[in-house]
Design a protein that fits this description.
This protein is α+β, with helices and mostly antiparallel strands. The protein contains seven helices and four strands; from the N terminus they run βααβααβααβα. Bound molecules: guanosine-5'-triphosphate (GTP) and magnesium ion. Guanosine-5'-triphosphate binds next to strand 4.
């Protein structure tokens, strides 16, 4: 078995989609083993998105991710890292496949940052690194 980090991003919390995200995780058969509200500061987000800090979109990503509380969820199950990425769908919510969280619940809003409802770790190594950051 393995674990992954899921974040319900500020747009998901504002739009009252916490329960919808949790329901999809649970219906798929994965287990929620820890969960909390977090209002992250800049240094936590720089650590979390270390691969993106030098990209041109990083300032708007940072502003979006600090725009309100998030829900951090520790999810467990066999191949859950890959499995949750599949549930979440591709990064861009306009083109994410219907049936996925981003495809069903997200869209472009004309904002500088891509608002795509959830984050999921992209590898088992990222999952271990990110879980250590969010659940210290
Ligand atoms: P996360 O689960 O949030 O990590 O998304 P992801 O793994 O699908 O995408 P990635 O890690 O590549 O990018 C992290 C976040 O940065 C995305 O969710 C977007 O909000 C934002 N982002 C990524 N690429 C771009 C881009 O080309 N332009 C803009 N404006 N934002 C981007
Ligand atoms: Mg990512």
């Amino acid at each position: 078995t393995e674990q992954t980090l899921v974040l319900v991003k500020p747009d998901g919390v504002r739009r009252n989609l916490i329960g919808e995200v949790i329901a999809r995780i649970e219906r798929k058969g994965y287990s929620i083993v820890d969960l909390k509200f977090v209002q992250p500061n800049e240094s936590l987000l720089r650590e979390h998105y270390e691969e993106h800090v030098d990209k041109p979109f990083f300032p708007s990503l940072l502003e979006f991710m600090m725009s309100g509380p998030m829900v951090a969820i520790r999810v467990e199950g066999d191949r859950v890292v890959e499995g949750f990425r599949s549930l979440a769908g591709e990064t861009n919510p306009t083109t994410a496949a219907p049936g996925t969280i981003r495809g069903d619940l997200g869209r472009d809003w004309g904002t500088a940052a891509i608002e795509n409802v959830v984050h999921g770790s992209d590898s088992t190594l990222s999952a271990e690194r990110e879980l250590a950051i969010w659940f210290k």
